[in-house]
Write a structure and sequence with these properties.
Elements (H helix, E strand, L loop, with lengths): L1 H14 L23 H34 L15 H30 L6 E8 L2 E6 L10 E5 L21 E4 L3 E8 L4 E5 L4 E5 L5 E6 L4 E7 L12 E6 L1 H11 L4 H11 L1
Parallel strand pairs: 1-5, 4-10
Antiparallel strand pairs: 1-2, 2-3, 5-8, 6-7, 6-9, 9-10
Helix pairs in contact: 1-2, 2-3
The structure holds dinuclear copper ion.
The site of dinuclear copper ion has 9 residues, from loops.
Amino acid sequence: MCKIYVTLILAYLNHISLYPCLLDYAHPWQISFQDPATPVMEGIIALHHDLMFVLAIIGTSVIWLLLRTTYLFYHKNNPIPSNITHGTTIEIVWTVTPSIILMVIAIPSFALLYSIDEVIDPAVTIKVIGHQWYWSYEYSDYSDINGNCVNFDSYMVSDDDLQLGQVRLLDVDNRVVVPANTHVRALVTATDVIHSWAIPSLGIKMDACPGRLNQVSMFIKREGVFYGQCSEICGIQHGFMPIAIQAVSIEDYVKWIAVQAECKDWFTNKVKLLQK
Ligand code: CUA
């Protein structure tokens, strides 16, 4: 019983942030998750905590059962062994109980899985392309009739070029700018080998496969910079193709995309549509 309380207290302490600000990249000696910025990541963390609760109860009962049987049936404590080899009732109990627990876990788990899959009427679509070893991004919502659109490559900032305040191995020369509090869709693909576009605070980990277009949606609830890394072993510089997403207000996003697209007429109309 004491074990349950210790586990519960530890689980609760995990909730309290050890840092004065929100955690949007990996921190030395970090335990547990980075702070969530999307409803999806909040759901993942909530499910994780629920599962840890179930896990604590199961772990405690199984360990208690094992210790008690090893003690009670030790040859010195139990010199005359019993002849019982099976019992129908106990076998039904230890088959049915775990399956009920599994079903109880499966319901919220599937609900979360399918809600992550849902793409809700996105206001902005970005295309994410993995290369050996950098990411490139296209904003094809604003392309002209010739198919020209806002697009750029995003390389890691090397140690020698780091500015004060930049995060080593995580900051990039061109960040992906997206509006906060807006449904954004990312279409993820690759040109050479399989990469994976992963941002822990957003609850995103989407494989980037050559010849395939994967889709993931995000609704970032606060402004900020969110860091991630390629999450599929893709070659010698796999660890050096980070992702930096900057979530800004819709007004700042419009200003940013206007500069990128050099404010063409066709573009201004699109922005008006977005602002509605
Ligand atoms: Cu790209 Cu690992």
